[in-house]
Amino acid sequence: MLGYDEPLVDSLPRGTVDSFAGTGNPFSFGDLRPGETVLDIGCGAGFDTLIASRQVGPSGRVIAVDMTPAMLEKTAAGARELGLANVDCRQGLAEELPVDDESVDVVISNGVINLCPDKVAVMKGVLRVLKPGGRFQIADIIVHKEVPQGAKDDIDLWSG
Amino acid sequence: MLEHVGFTDVRWGPQVDVFSGSKHESDAKEFDTRGVTFAGIKPSSEGASRTNN
Ligand SMILES: C[S@@+](CC[C@H](N)C(=O)[O-])C[C@H]1O[C@@H](n2cnc3c(N)ncnc32)[C@H](O)[C@@H]1O
Predict the structure, then answer these.
(1) Which of ligand 1's atoms lies nearest the C-alpha of A20?
(2) pLDDT tens digits for A46-85?
(3) Domains, in order of start, for chain A
(4) How far is B6 from chain A (nearest CA, A)?
(5) Cα(A118)–Cα(A115) distance, rounded to whole angstroms?
(6) 3-state DSSP: chain B helix, strand, coil percent, rounded to 5?
(7) How many C-beta atoms lie closer than 10 Å to residue B46's C-beta?
(8) Looking at residue A117, what DSSP letter applies?
(9) To pair with A65 at 20 to 30 A between CA atoms, which of A20, A103, A130, B17?
């Protein structure tokens, strides 16, 4: 599935996997390091959050941000099920990240920024929260042709 | 845009057809929609970023 290791996917809670809505694999640029602080923007049900949580280990931390409380609850439930105590769920917008300046080593995100009208604001926020020398690893979708307003207004095309 | 915001070492992974087999496959094809991965770094020294405004 999208380049994720199958045994890794199988080790995640069923509900987390079933609700996965990512468009790629942010870890394709490399795994995270133990002890790192990670921010997952638009964590959804927490698929990547849980993978990141295991990679950074107990000395690291994953801040999982989503605007939808129901998705944050799924992420928290998944972390509880796996006994992961280093996941910090926060409600907020990608455009106004509820995260301190220069406090994060790595920002990950999967299938979210295409949904954000102000992509420059999102990436400026990523720059703000990253420590100097910190990195982002993002999976998303892009369109190569202009999408007409009628398609943009079709709510069915925004969801899976 | 990413360099303009202030990132360096911006890298793009291969583009993939993520909607193949989904119910929106034909819409995705119509707008030439692709899955992408990209990565970048926040410069460690102040002067290394181009602009942040
Ligand atoms: C397509 S899902 C991807 C979820 C998750 N990253 C995954 O891979 O399964 C998009 C998620 O981003 C959240 N989202 C969309 N726009 C957002 C925004 N502007 N700020 C914060 N969260 C947002 C939605 O609530 C949803 O959980």
Answers:
(1) 9
(2) 999 999 999 999 999 999 999 999 999 999 999 999 999 9
(3) 6-157 (3.40.50.150)
(4) 7
(5) 9
(6) 25, 30, 45
(7) 8
(8) S
(9) B17
Instruction: Supply the DSSP symbol for A93.
Output: B
Q: Exposed, middle or buried, A158 (CB in 10 Å: 0-12/13-18/19+)?
A: exposed
pLDDT recorded at residue B53:
43
ipTM for this model: 0.88
Q: Tokens in use for A5?
A: 């290791």
Residues of B in contact with A136 (CB under 8 A): 7, 39-40
Q: Which residue has the tokens 């996917």?
A: A9
Query: Which 6-45 residues of chain B touch chain A by CB within 8 A?
Result: 6-7, 11, 13, 15-16, 18, 22, 24, 27, 30-45
The residue among A118, A114, A120, A157 whose CA lies nearest residue A138 is A114
Tokens representing A128? 């703000």
pTM here is 0.90
User: Residue A19 and residue A110: Cα distance in Å, rounded?
Assistant: 13
